[in-house]
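Side project, low priority. Logging it here so it doesn't get lost.
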Amino acid sequence: LWQLLKRYGIPVFLFINKMDQPGTDKEAIQKELKDRLDEGCVDFSGEMDEAFYEQAAMCDETALEQFLEEDRLGEEEQLIRLIRERKLFPCFYGSALKLTGVDEFLDGLDRYTVQPVYPQEFGAKIFKIVRDDQGNRLTYMKITGGSLKVKSMLTNAGAEDKLRPGQ
């Protein structure tokens, strides 16, 4: 899964669950994440002190230069950039069953991600075309803006097609 996420360039947030179980060692788990996945796995569940920012800055040369020059890291913009570029992987620890750490994880997702802005005008990228059992053409698309209604006419370089229910 990690290799697949890497291949497609998908930013990753990690939630390490069941930390309420006896014998769990947060430091050992964090070390294993760094060894097996990536050095950019940084614990976001603790205090964001100088040690935290130093670890985050070590993931990127530009961030490290800023940290060394200014003795700080432009928290929001730098961390968001590092996460988006897959150089930093925020790790949160907790227990989902007991709702421990879940709010911090969700707050981290909200704080360190940027929602894409899509235009009001309809746009889409077709990524797959297949035929169903009756021979009808089915078109799979990622909608990149606007909305689409049933029987709307779609045009693309002179070709026209109607959108039918189920397509």
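Brief comment: The chain has a mean pLDDT of 87.
Revisit when time allows.
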